Amino acid sequence: MSRKQHTRNATGPMGPSQRQLRAGELIRHALVDVLREQEIHDEALLGVSITVTEVRLSPDLKHATCFVEPLGAGVEAAVTAGHESEIIKALNAHAKFLRGQLGRHIDMKFTPDLRFRHDESFDAASHIDRLMDDPRVRADVAAPDSDEDEGQA
After folding, report:
1. Which of 15, 101, 118, 121 is at a distance of 20 to 30 A from 144, taking alpha carbons?
2. CA separation for the pair 97, 103 (Å, rounded)
3. Strand segments (E) across the chain
């Protein structure tokens, strides 16, 4: 009789394991050092500072998805013009070089393959801030407090 093996999915209801989280933070810190030390010769990356916000690892720790946010001089205008996709493409084009450099900074059995994605969380947070600043939403948020006061009187 064969036994059914239970595998833990990183995106499952339980979320990533402690090992994945710890290795992700190790890789994030090392990747920041690599990006700071190494100059990547690519026009899309000139004058752009890259913030690595999160690194998510696969359960076997062999694939890493790196969420990045471009910062720096003139980036605001460039991002609105769709330049951030060029930055992500450039980082993905240099992923093997970055992986090689990363291998010198971390002490892991395998250096994971890197895949770069734009971090959408900043856009979502600013969208929520704009929604909360809307006068109609403020009125809705303040309205339940006054209804509770009337019910208690």
Report:
1. 121
2. 10
3. 48-57, 63-72, 113-118
pTM of the model: 0.69
For the chain, the first-to-last Cα distance in angstroms comes to 69
Q: What one-letter code names the amino acid at 39? A: E
**83-101, pLDDT tens digit by residue?**
778 899 999 999 999 999 9
Q: Which pair of tokens denotes residue 6?
A: 């239970």
Q: Is the pLDDT of residue 22 over 70?
A: yes
In angstroms, the CA 40 to CA 83 distance is 17
Question: Exposed, middle or buried, 98 (CB in 10 Å: 0-12/13-18/19+)?
Answer: buried
Closest CA to 45 of 82, 80, 77, 89: 89
* Residues forming a β-bridge with 131: none
The alpha carbon of 46 is separated from its chain's Cα centroid by a whole number of angstroms, namely 21
SS3 15: coil
